[in-house]
Specification:
By secondary structure, the chain is of the alpha+beta class. It has eight helices and four strands; from the N terminus they run ααααααβαβββα. Helix 1 packs across helix 6 and helix 2 packs across helix 3.
């Protein structure tokens, strides 16, 4: 019986490329670097409106703009028809550059990187906070204050609900995770009890192996 090779039916998109984040960083740095410091916040606000239009208000349009259904010229035409009459020349030209280089698929990722860079410039950093339930405004204020004092920057808190946390919080800053959940504390307690039991058993064996007087 001949082996049959599996037919590959899914073609990875640019967003699934491991280098997508690196490419997005290059474009985001170039875009932010082309804007005067005094104008950056207003331009980013305009960029936010574009993302909101493409991802939330008109998702069908957004998928068309960022998919491979259109060729390069068609995407450029779409940018000129939809954005040029309303957006600033700076943002329109940036969208044209992305269209020419077939990088419009990276638009949401580039926007995320732009916000991250801007937060870093302002001494801010994104912090992920996971909890088993929705946190109150007072909870968030207290967490923000504690993180500011402990880590030395203004945290931009992004919350999510994770039932596996059980109790407490799981906080992530970049690649560092501070796990204060009840599940983790119980796991650590079980580990300490297990180690203590092993130590006690080993100590008992040693006493039996080496009786006094021998």
């Amino acid at each position: 019986m001949n082996d049959q090779k599996e037919v590959k039916t899914h073609v990875p998109s640019v967003m699934e490329d491991p280098s997508a984040t690196s490419v997005a960083k290059v474009y985001s740095k170039a875009f932010l670097g082309s804007i005067k410091e005094s104008e950056r916040d207003s331009v980013i606000e305009e960029f936010t409106e574009v993302i909101d239009l493409a991802m939330t208000q008109q998702p069908v349009f957004g998928r068309m703009l960022m998919s491979n259904a259109l060729n390069k010229d068609e995407r450029l035409s779409l940018v000129d028809r939809v954005f040029a009459p309303h957006a600033s020349e700076l943002l329109t030209n940036f969208l044209r550059v992305l269209a020419r280089h077939e990088r419009l698929e990276l638009l949401p990722l580039i926007f995320t990187q732009i916000k991250t860079l801007r937060d870093t410039e302002a001494g801010k950093k994104a912090v992920s906070v996971r909890s088993a339930f929705e946190l109150s405004e007072q909870n968030l204020t207290n967490i923000e204050k504690c993180l500011n004092e402990a880590l030395g920057f203004s945290p931009v808190i992004e919350t999510s609900i994770d039932q596996s946390v059980i109790g407490g919080l799981v906080i992530q800053v970049d690649d560092t995770v501070y796990d204060g959940s009840l599940r983790t504390r119980l796991k650590q307690l079980r580990g300490r009890l297990s180690n203590r039991s092993i130590h006690e058993i080993q100590s008992g064996r040693d006493r039996f192996s080496h009786p006094e007087g021998n």
